[in-house]
Amino acid sequence: MLASAAVALLGLTGAGWAQDQSIIVQSTTSTANSGLYDYLLPIFTDESGITVNVVAVGTGQAIKNAENCDGDVLLVHAKPSEEQFIADGFGTERTDLMYNDFVIVGPEADPAGIGGMTDVEGALAKIAEAAAPFASRGDDSGTHQKEVALWEASGVDPMAASGEWYRETGSGMGATLNAGIGMGAYVLTDRATWISFENKQDYAVQVEGDDDLFNQYGVIPVSADKCPSVKSDAAQAFADWLISEAGQEAIAGYKVDDQQLFFPNAPDQ
Questions:
Q1: In sequence order, what are the residues at sequence separation of 6 or more whose Cβ sits closer than 8 angstroms to the Cβ of residue 75?
Q2: Which of 156, 178, 179, 155 is nearest to 167 (CA)?
Q3: Which of 91, 98, 189, 227 has the greatest number of beta carbons closer than 10 A?
């Protein structure tokens, strides 16, 4: 559905929509830290007249906030948790929106010798074998959930070394990258945040290219059945725009240092 059509179907043009209409998006941090919203939201607001306010937290917290009816739309990247959100009746429909990938970054010294590897589970096993520092978000974010799954697939229980070589920050992606760099630790990060991150120092991407590092984002309007206060029409208009041709083109057009950060993959409308 084209952006103008998505709005027109609801009878909502920029001129006709109440000027004070706004929605809250409970969001993963990577979409905010990367600057994507700063690029996308003015385009949508100009088209619809709807103001979008973003609460950027880890995916786990974003889902909890939405379940507490503290948002109108959920935009996160942990598909099993998103599907549970739908199954529990909190969302109307989940739609694939866009993707990128995760990478492991580390210092130039590369104490675990993982540089250039494309086998992420093998790389994690080498990090554990070398007892090389690894900084984890430890916050139930989408990135942390992915990391936990990768450790499990590698056959390593990093929590056995919690506080030793495995260090949990309980923080967002940017703060964890800063902490990891400060302690010379490896870090799993989404590529968009890494590209936008300014304090790289001597760090570089050490592991990439494994299919298991795929990072899918989804968008879900919050259900009025569970949350009667949700602004359903405006929330649906935003979700429809994101997955429309215009929204998908806008996502693809966002770049940092000439690098595309997110790759749209919503189903054809």
A1: 25, 26, 27, 28, 31, 62, 97, 217, 218, 219, 220
A2: 179
A3: 98
